[in-house]
Every structure is written in C-alpha cells, then in structure tokens.
UniProtKB/TrEMBL annotation:
Example GO molecular function: P-type calcium transporter activity
Top-tier EC class: translocase
Catalytic activity reported: Ca(2+)(in) + ATP + H2O = Ca(2+)(out) + ADP + phosphate + H(+)
Pfam families: Cation_ATPase (PF13246), Cation_ATPase_C (PF00689), Cation_ATPase_N (PF00690), E1-E2_ATPase (PF00122)
Species classification: Eukaryota, Fungi, Dikarya, Ascomycota, Pezizomycotina
Primary location: membrane
GO annotations of cellular component type: plasma membrane; vacuolar membrane
UniProtKB keywords: ATP-binding, Calcium, Calcium transport, Ion transport, Magnesium, Membrane, Metal-binding, Nucleotide-binding, Translocase, Transmembrane, Transmembrane helix, Transport, Vacuole
Membrane-spanning segments: 186-204, 224-243, 389-413, 433-460, 949-967, 979-996, 1016-1039, 1051-1071
Stated name of the protein: Calcium-transporting ATPase
Domain Cation-transporting P-type ATPase N-terminal: 95-203
Region described as Disordered: 1-64
GO biological process annotation, one example: intracellular calcium ion homeostasis
Length: 1134
C-alpha cells in the first residue's frame, strides 16, 4: 500500500477465528441532535449487529467538527459526503432510512443498483434534490438533454464532490529535516552556545596571542571542539536512526501492489484499480475479498463479513440486502439482524454479491483511520523533564559564570595600577578571565546527558528486538517505562484470535483447558486419548461430514476456511481425533442428504449411509434447543442408547448454563440411526426431498462442546505483573458486555468493585463524569474507535501515561493518540502497525511486560547517569570557582584539558556503563513515575549532596593544606605541579569509584547486584582506569601532568580517597530521606530566594534581546526549582 493511496491490504485468505459476539441494539432518546446517539442506561435487546435506533430526523445532522463534510458548493447530487458518512459512524439504520434506503441512495448518487455508473459520465448535466432522491414517489424534473462536455474529465463532478479513493500524499521526511529536528533540543542548543564561545576564545588564545619561546602550546580550543564533536555525534545518531526507520517503512509500503476490483458500469462487469473506485460504483464481493470502500449491500447470496479488524465486532456479520432492510423498517418490523452496511477494511468470509459504494477516500472508515495516524509525535515525559532541567542548569552555569567573571574582573581592574605587564599581556590576562568564566558554563552543562539518553535508548531497542519488541519510534521504550495505564483490545491481543474448543462434556467424560476450568477436569489431550474408535468416528461425522467448511492454503500451510464455529470443531478433530484430511474423510463417507444451517431451527444436519447398511442422521447446533429435541442419551464408550432421565437432563442443562456463564458458545451433537432412508415418519418438502426438520424429535444426545476465543497463554500472569508494577490494565473491545466481562475476569483485568461500561454510554458522559468514573473503569465494551480515542485522551488529560494495544484497523486512532501504541506483528493490520510506536513481533501481550521492564531500565539509566553527572559537575564547578578566585593568577586548579577528560570523556564512558544494565523482575516492584514527579528524587539528591560534601572536603584539603600535610615546598614549581597532579588524580579516582555507587538509585546497599551480567560496565570501568593510569604516566604537558607521573605514596592517596566514596555512600543511604528533605527545605530556602532573583534577572536580560513568548513559564520569568525533592517525602522548593 503506497503511502498516498487508500486501499486496505490485500487479503491472503486469513481465517483467524474470533470470539462469539452478540452485540446489542442501541436505542436512544438523546435531546441534542449534534451528538452521536447513544444507548440509555436501561437494558436493551440483543441483536446480531451493533446498530443505532434513533429519530430519523436527527440522524443526518453533523457531529461537532464534521460540518465541512456537509457543505459542498454546486453539488449536483442529492447527498453530501457527510450525510453518507452518517451511515457508518456507527452503523445507523435511521440514517439509512432518512436517505431513502438503497433506492434513495442510488437515486441521490445518480447510479443504478443493476447497471452501476455510466462509463460515459463526465460532468453531471442536471441536479437532483434531497427530496427527489429520498421520496420515491416524487417525479424528477424533466431536463433537456445536453451534449456532454468533451473537454471534461471522466466522472469530473463525482470526483469533485466525493473525492477519489486515495489519500493526500504523505511526503517522507528528508534527512536534513530529521537532523534539524534532532538538533532542536534545549540541551544541545545550550551546549552549542557554550562550545562556540569556548572554541572562539581558545582559538584566539592559540593563534591571536604571542607566546614565549619554549612555552607549551595552548590547547584551550580542544574543549570547545570536543563538545562540538559530541553534539554532532548525538544529532547524527538520532537523525540517522530515525531516517533508517522511516526509509524501511517507506520500502515496506512500496512493496504493496495495488489490487484490482470488479465493478459493474453501464451494465457490464469490468476490472478497475482499487484507487479508481468512486461513490456510486456497484462493487462485487467474493469470499476472501477485503472491502475497499464503505457502502450498502445491494443483492447477493449468504454474504458474511468479518468486521473484527474494522469495528471490533468479533463475530461474522450476515448482510441483508438494502431493499429488504428498508421494507422491514417501513413495516415497523424488528430491527434484529438487519445489517445492510459494508465497511471498508472488513473481510468477506462467505457468499457472493454486490454493494453500492457510498464513501471513498478520506471519507471512508478506512480513510479516516489512515488520516488519523498522521499526527505529530509528542515529546516524551523524559524529554520534557530533561528540557526543563537543561534550562535550570543553564541558569545555574550562567549565574555562577557571571558572578565569577565580575569577581575576577574587579580583582583585575583593581590591580591594574600596580600591574607591571605590557598592555598585550594585560589583554591576554583579561581573556584568561573570560575563558575561566566560559569554562564554568561548559562544566556546568551536562553535555553527556543527551548522548546518555541516545545510547540508553539505542541499547534498549536493540535488546528489545531480540525479545520480540520492534521499536519503530526510538523514544517509545523510554515512555513505556513511565506508563501508568494500558488500554488493550480483546480480540487478537488478549485472546488468540482463533475460535477454539475449550471444554466438552460427553456423559461422564468431560474435558477443559486449564485456563477455562480449574476444578480438576481432565485436559483435552487426556480426554482424546481415551476416546474409543466408535465414538471418534461419530464425532468426526458430526463435525467433518456435517460441515460446509473446506480446506485452504494460507501462507503455505493448510487451514480450514469457513464459519468460525465449524473451523474450531474441525481443528479439534484434526489436533486430537486423528482427522488427517477433510476431503479424504468426506470421500470415505456416503452422504445421502444435507440440511444447511437453518437459523430458525439453529442447527444443521447430514445423513450418512453406514457401512452396515443403515443410515445415520447427525445434527449439530444450539445445544439447549437440540437437548429439547432429544429423548435418549448415548453412552460415550459403547454408544449404547439409554432413556434421557430428568436428572440427566438437568445435569446437561447445568453444564450448558455453566459454559454459557463462562461466555462459551455451546454446540450440541445429537444423532439418530435409521434402518432405512427416508424413514417411515418423514415428511417431504414441495421439491420432493426429505424435510429433515420433521425428524428433529426423539433424537439421541451425544455431547456438548464449548467454543471460545481463548485467552493467550501467559496473559493473566502478564496482567498481574503490570498491576503489581502500578500499571492499570483496561480492556477496550467491540464485543458485548457478557463476553467482555468473562474474558476480562479470566485475564485478571476485571476485579470486584471495578466498573464495566458500554461505549455509547461512556461517550455521552460529560468530561467531569468521565473523570469521576475512569479511575474505576476496567472494561469498556461495545466501543467504537472514537470511544477508544476519547478514553485515551481523557486518561492523558488526567496526567496518565497511556499505552494502547491493538491489532485491527479500528484500533489505529487510539494507537496514535496514546503515548505508546503497541500493534501485533503477525495478526496486526498494516494500518495498526503504521499507527503504533512498538510492534509486538510474537503477538504476545506478555511482551508488553518486557517493554515495560526495558522502558524502566532506560529511565533508570538516565537517572543513574544524571546522578553521577550532576555530582561531577557540581564538584567541578565549585572547585573551578573557588580555586580561580583564590589563585593569584586567577587560574582554576583543574586545567582545561583535565576538565575535558573529567567532564566529557568520563561522562561518555559513564553513560555507556550505566546505560547497559539489563532490567530484572525486581524493576516491576515499584510504581511508575508520573509526569509531574521530579526527575531527581529525594534519594538521588541525598546521594549527590553527600558525595559532593566528601569530594569537596578532600579536594579543598589537598588544595589548601596539601603542601603542609605532605611537606611540599609550593614555591618550587615542580612540587606545585605534583600537588596539582595529585588533586587531579584523586578527583578522577573518586569519580571512578562513585560509578559503582550510582548503579543503585534506592537506599539498598548491594551496589554490585547483577554486575556479572553487564560485561559492558566491567569493560568500560577497566578502560577508564587504564586511560587514567596512562594519562598520569605519559600525559605530560598537554594534560598539565608532572613529568614522570606520581610516586607510590601519591598513588595510594589518590586510590584510598577515591575508594572511600563507597563506604561513605553506605552511610549516606542509612541517613533517612525524610531528615534530608527537612534539612534541604530549611537550608535551601535562602538559596532558592537568591536563585529566584537571579533567574528573574537573567530572564529580564534575556527579554531585552528576544521577542516575548508564551511557550513556557520559564521563558515568562518563572524560575525552575533548584531543589527537586520527591513530593511524597517533602514539598519541592518553589
């Protein structure tokens, strides 16, 4: 399917079975004509199809937001596209009646139910009014015949009014745009500014200033260049990843060939492209077809459609010709089973016929869903939090740099009078001050953060693919970690999408699947192993000979094609009763008579001539009805016939009721043997054949089977895991209330005290009422795609992070509206896959738990890195600030290249090390983080603060008292260089050991848990250690290292001070979070007040150079909090 074409995917006979559905008829008395009619709270009668019953006078009024579809200038046809859309939004018999039925629709579209459109049509020479079309007795106005406009294009007016069966083209995003999108990140922009300033000043120091002969070459420009390289890497990795994914999806769509459709035009059958189908076309339907456009059934034989992928209705829907429906409506007959609507995207299971297209292109159901998936991707929660954090850090860095610059500037100006240096040297000294200030900004901004996020996501998506999660949108896995709600489709997602025999009762022999019955009943395999040959033969005769299904091929394997009930019974015979070939089994039996399924008698029958000369009538159908026709029961082992007593009858009725309460479809198997055919008491039809219906009495009851679309293995366990992780799982399905309740209870979704609602009832609630009921809502039954989308949007409005799962076309709007959309890789439609962010390659709901674990692992990786990064940056900023102020030459203790190693390379390695921790089951033992929760928790701030206290104490002790402690003569430049090298080495080793502390974000002590499974971490730490040793021994002049490195004592001091970070962290973890929060709240108040003043001042200065914007509170002058603590422990600083 090309991206700019509209066509449901070509069907390769897909006979996936679905669960039973008896959707209800919805009656409405809504007083607001602009709202889609909904059901009242009172119970409603059951029907085979979900259809709206309302006042025809209001059925064609536009829904809010669709008014433009009802307004067409110079429309020569009777109806607008919007009016025809009302037929299927949802299915509406009143709209059908208001449009004059099939005859009125054909007249209004200037088509014919026999001949179709005219091949000679171009412009429409005369106009037909709405009243003329819907009133069959009103004569149309006589119009003088006109010569056709030879210059006009074929079907010009029809295409102008109703459109083509194509979608507006969707252009692939060019690579430059993806690069620009990747670059438009707050952190990267702040980094760019800092890098450009640092690089410019560094180049000036290197190239624009004269240096004494023999002095080391300045390398101040290296830091700015390195940051630029880091920015380029992040942008290119992100953009190329997105570009490759988009290219792959474009290639996937390009492989979809357009298919051909058979239509009738001018009374002749012709083949046209699916993209050339127009409103008013008479389209032919055959088994296996995927319906290309919406329309109304005209005529045919036994048309049944599987609308599960389009509407969520899991049962096959029998179609009734439009004229027959209109006659029934005019006569006031029951609307039960009246469904003339053909929905685009549905599949034809049985029968042949024709239907008239009413909505094509963007107006069809399929087209609306395709257009709804073309929305912009929202920012993820982590992106939003990181953006705010980056702005806050930028303010911190800018403020610190500005304060330091003015302090050093005042010192510089105050010392000018006694400064004997030449003017050029004084200018160079001023530039050094400016470079130190810029260095503070560079050190403060966590440039490794976007790289850490990208690396964590890339690693997670690669590993997730091995675990059957194909991540189409890179950041979706990160969002999944914070998911608080999962809205799952039932059919094909929670269930197997295949009707299966799950229970059975044959006398005293009963079986059940373990998921269906836990009372100790034997399994199907165990039961089948005990079936005697005579009973096995009778079962095969009942389900294989008495059947209209047949064998077909799907993707190279043999499958059964036919009604879902019959294919389920045949699968039982094939899997457990030795049915090898359906055709061979039928050839081995002599069938004397067949009675097709009779909807009045709720059964079908076949007569077989037995090998001993007798005849056997085998009947299958609705078990409760067939039981009433039986007077005897057969022994399952011997087939001996015994009278059916009252106790046995009640036991069978109880079994049938038990199956029905579990939402199983019950099928009874009965038979009777006759010595001759036809029997003496048989009645005959007008055609002379035996009326099998006359023999449906005094039959022999053989057994009852329960059929269901079973729950996927592992789904109840997966749901329980999600709930334990604080994620609410809701089932959203088009199935009826009873089936939805039973499946939801089996999946552990529906619990006592939970709310089950129907879609129309939910839809009519106000936003306030929705918000009140949603927290307890567990099942939304009989829901339309719009209901799913509304639920998702309301959940998001309540601050939830919503994941939606689904496999059908009807799930696409909700998949796209959700924060994370999961589609099924095997059974999912292409529309669902395109709308989703993650594709479950094994169609297993349990794989969502894998995505949840990896999503949390990504968030943890970012938080671990952030905890490490901020600890390093705060220490480095304070160290640079204080030492630059105290130094006579106004130079910080750590040189620019040393800071480069600490601030960039160490961060990159740390990102790799901390981003590659695989998740464990324990990661699900905590609730998800909500959007409004801080990125840095109280526990993290406690660890950051505690580590900074220790590190600054050690470094300042070495800086200010190191000479005295170690007996160094600091007037000796060599000894001073040794002390500086010792400070640098100690600082780095403290970061190395602190990496281990940051493997945990909680207060537990085992920082080495799972380290043996993360070989990346071990290798990276070893690499950092190796490089640090190498720098100390051979770093020399570029790194400002003492020639010859350090001696044993100095190495011991460095490593011991570094190692002590680990026991210090244990003490920090034992310090109560609540105490720390209280201390931070008190101590932080003055800091926050000063900080708020600084931020407002910086914002006002910024406002002088930029236009006013209302995009965010930060840009409007509101300062982000400097102290972020968990709201559960203590209030955040404001």
């Amino acid at each position: 399917m090309e991206s700019n074409k509209l066509s449901p995917p070509t069907l390769h006979v897909n006979t996936r079975q679905r669960a039973n559905s008896r959707a209800d008829t919805i009656s409405s008395s809504t007083s607001n004509p602009f709202l889609t009619p909904v059901s009242p709270l009172t119970p409603v009668s059951t029907s085979d199809v979900s259809t709206l019953i309302e006042d025809p006078r209001t059925s064609l009024r536009p829904d809010p937001g669709t008014e433009v579809d009802f307004e067409v200038e110079n429309n020569p046809f009777a109806f607008s596209p919007g009016q025809l859309n009302k037929l299927l939004s949802p299915k509406s018999l009143p709209a059908f009646q208001a449009l004059g039925g099939l005859e009125g629709i054909a007249r209004g579209l200037k088509s014919d139910t026999r001949a179709g459109l005219s091949v000679d049509e171009s412009t429409v020479p005369w106009k037909i009014t709405f009243d003329e079309a819907v009133n069959h007795h009103m004569p149309t106005k006589e119009v003088e015949p006109t010569h056709p406009d030879t210059s006009a294009q074929p079907f010009q007016d029809r295409i102008r009014v109703y459109g083509r069966n194509t979608l507006p083209p969707k252009k692939a995003t060019p690579l430059w745009r993806l690069i620009w999108n990747a670059y438009n990140d707050t952190v990267l922009i702040v980094l760019t500014v800092a890098a450009v300033i640092s690089l410019a000043l560094g180049l000036y120091e290197t190239l624009g200033v004269d240096h004494p002969p023999g002095s080391p070459a300045p390398v101040d420009w290296v830091e700015g260049l390195a940051i630029c390289i880091a920015i380029i890497i992040v942008v290119l990795v992100t953009a190329m990843n997105d570009w490759q994914k988009e290219k792959a999806f474009v290639r996937l769509n390009a492989k979809k060939e357009e298919r051909e459709i058979k239509v009738t035009r001018s009374g002749k059958e012709i083949i046209i492209s699916v993209y050339d189908v127009l409103a008013g076309d008479l389209i032919h339907l055959e088994p296996g077809d995927v319906v290309p456009v919406d329309g109304v059934f005209v005529d045919g034989h036994n048309i049944k459609c599987d609308e599960s992928s389009a509407t969520g209705e899991s049962d096959a829907i029998r179609k009734v010709p439009g004229d027959a429906v209109m006659k029934a409506l005019d006569a006031g007959q029951s609307t039960k089973g009246l469904d003339p609507f053909i929905i685009s995207g549905s599949k034809v299971l049985e029968g042949v016929g024709t239907y008239m297209a009413t909505s094509v292109g963007v107006h069809s159901s399929f087209g609306k869903i395709m257009m709804s998936v073309r929305t912009e991707i929202e920012a993820t929660p982590l992106q939003e939090k990181l953006g705010k954090l980056a702005v806050a850090i930028a303010y911190i860095g800018t403020t610190a740099a500005a304060v330091l610059f003015f302090i050093l500037l005042f010192r510089f100006v105050g010392g000018l009078s006694g400064n004997p240096r030449a003017p050029a040297e004084k200018g160079s000294q001023f530039l050094d001050i400016l470079i130190v200030a810029v260095t503070i900004i560079v050190v403060a901004v966590p440039e490794g953060l976007p790289l850490a996020v990208t690396l964590a996501l890339a690693f997670a998506t690669t590993r997730m693919l091995k675990e059957n999660n194909l991540v189409r949108v890179l950041r979706a896995c990160e969002t999944m970690g914070n998911a608080t709600a999962i809205c799952s489709d039932k059919t094909g997602t929670l269930t197997t999408n295949k009707m299966t025999v799950v229970a059975g009762s044959f006398g005293s022999f009963k079986f059940a699947q373990s998921d269906t019955d836990s009372s100790g009943v034997q399994s199907i395999s165990s039961w089948a192993s005990k079936v005697k040959s005579s009973a096995k033969e009778l079962i095969i005769q009942s389900v294989a000979i008495n059947s209209t299904a047949f064998e077909g091929q799907e993707e190279g394997s043999s499958v059964f094609v036919g009604s879902k009930t019959e294919t389920a019974l045949l699968q039982l015979a094939k899997d457990h009763l030795g049915l090898l070939s359906l055709s061979e089994a039928r050839n081995n039996e002599q069938v004397v008579h067949m009675m097709p399924f009779d909807s009045a008698k709720k059964c079908m029958a076949a007569v077989i001539k037995l090998r001993d000369g007798g005849y056997r009538l085998v009947v299958k159908g609705a078990s409760e009805i067939l039981l009433g026709n039986c007077s005897s029961v057969a022994d399952f082992e011997t087939l001996e016939i015994q009278p059916l007593g009252t106790a046995q009858r009640e036991a069978l009725e109880n079994t049938i009721d038990e199956y029905a309460n579990k939402s199983l479809r019950t099928i009874g198997l009965v038979y009777q043997n006759y010595p001759q055919w036809p029997p003496a008491d048989a009645e005959f039809s007008e055609g002379g054949s035996v009326d099998v219906g006359s023999l449906l009495h005094d039959l022999v009851f053989f057994g009852v089977l329960g059929i269901q679309d079973p729950v996927r293995p592992g789904v109840p366990t997966a749901v329980r895991k999600a709930q334990n992780a604080g994620v609410t799982v809701r089932m959203v399905t088009g199935d009826n209330l009873q089936t939805a309740r039973a499946i939801a209870a089996e999946c552990n979704i529906y619990t006592e005290g939970g709310v089950i609602m129907e879609g129309p009832e939910f839809r009519r609630l106000s936003e306030t009422e929705m918000d009140a009921v949603i927290p307890r809502l567990q099942v939304l039954a009989r829901s339309s795609p719009e209901d799913k989308r509304i639920l998702v949007l309301r959940l998001k409005g309540l601050g939830e992070i919503v994941a939606v799962t689904g496999d059908g076309t009807n799930d696409a709007p909700a998949l796209k509206a959700a924060n994370i959309g999961f589609s099924m890789g095997i059974s999912g439609t292409e529309v669902a896959k395109e709308a989703s962010a993650i594709i479950l390659m094994d169609d297993n709901f349990s794989s969502i738990i894998t995505a949840l674990m990896w999503g949390r692992a990504v968030n943890d990786a970012v938080q671990k890195f952030l905890q490490f990064q901020i600890t390093v940056n705060i220490t480095a900023v304070l160290l640079a600030f204080v030492t630059a102020v105290c130094d006579e030459e106004m130079q910080p203790a750590l040189k620019a290249v040393q800071l480069l190693w600490v601030n960039l390379i160490m961060d990159t390695f740390a990102a790799l090390a901390l981003a590659t921790d695989p998740p464990t089951e324990r990661i699900l033992d905590r609730p998800p983080q909500r959007k409004d929760q801080p990125l840095i928790t109280t526990t993290m701030w406690k660890q950051i603060t505690g580590q900074n206290i220790y590190k600054l104490t050690v470094i300042f002790t070495l800086y200010f008292a190191g000479g005295s402690i170690l007996n160094y003569d600091l007037s000796d430049e060599k000894k001073k260089l040794e002390l500086d090298t010792l400070i640098f080495n100690s600082f780095v080793w403290m970061q190395i050991f602190n990496i281990f502390n940051n493997r945990r974000l909680d207060n537990k002590l085992n920082i080495f848990e799972g380290i043996q499974r993360n070989h990346f971490f071990t290798a990276i730490v070893a690499l950092i250690v190796g490089l640090q040793i190498l720098i100390i021994f051979v770093g020399g002049r570029p790194f400002g290292i003492s020639p010859g490195g350090l001696d044993g004592t100095q190495w011991a001091i460095s490593i011991v001070t570094g190692f002590f970070c680990i026991p210090w962290a244990i003490g920090i973890r034992y310090f109560p979070d609540a105490w720390f929060a209280e201390i931070a709240h008190v101590v932080g108040k003055p800091v926050v007040i000063v900080w708020d003043v600084c931020c407002k001042g910086a914002s006002k200065v910024k406002g002088l150079f930029t236009k006013k914007s209302k995009k965010s509170d930060i840009e409007a002058g509101a300062a982000p909090p400097i102290v972020v603590v968990d709201s559960d422990s203590a209030p955040s600083a404001q």
